[in-house]
TrEMBL record:
Name of protein: MOSC domain-containing protein
InterPro entries registered for this protein in UniProt: MoCF_Sase_C, MOSC_domain, Pyrv_Knase-like_insert_dom_sf
MOSC domain segment(s): 22-170
Pfam families tied to this protein: MOSC
Amino acid sequence: MSPLVQEVVGVHRSGSHDFSKRSQPFVDLVEGLGVEGDAHFGATVKHRSRVAADPSQPNMRQVHLIHSELFDDLRGAGYDVAPGELGENITTRGVELLELPVGTRLTIGDAVITVTGLRNPCQQINDFREGLLKHVVRRDDDGNVVRLAGVMGIVSRSGRVQPGASIRVDLPPEPHHPLTRI
C-alpha cells in the first residue's frame, strides 16, 4: 500500500470581502499577517463581524484551509463546488484537517501555518448554494455540532505556496486539544 499523498490542490485569494476566492498560480504567506493580497491579511481581525465587535482582536484566522475531500462529499450530495468557492485560501488533499489538534504546524515549502481552530460556517454558505449549510454543519449521533468547512490558522513562517506542494504535518506536544470554532 502506498503512503497517502498530502499536498496542496489549489491556492486562492481575494482582495475584497467576497465569499469565494479566485484561484492563483501561487500565494505568498507573510508571518504574522496571512495571505498577501487577501482581504483577511493583517495582524488584527479582518472578518467584518469581528471587526465590528472589537477591531483590536488578534487575527487568528489569517489562513483558511479546506480539504478537497469535502468537495467530493458535497458532489455526492448534489452540490458542484470547486476549490476556492467556499472562501478558502488553500485547498488540500490527504490531510485530515478536521482531526488535527490546536497548534498543529503545517509546513508547505518554506511556509509554516499553525492551526488555530475550525471555521464557523454561516448563512453566506446558503446564499452561495441554497441548502449547502446543512451539509457543512451537522449534528452527530449525540447531538454535538460538527463543523466540516475547514480550519483556520496563522502564518508562523513566511513562504510561497503553490498547487502540487507537499504538506508536512507536525503535531504539537501532548496533551492535544481538539479544534473548536474560531
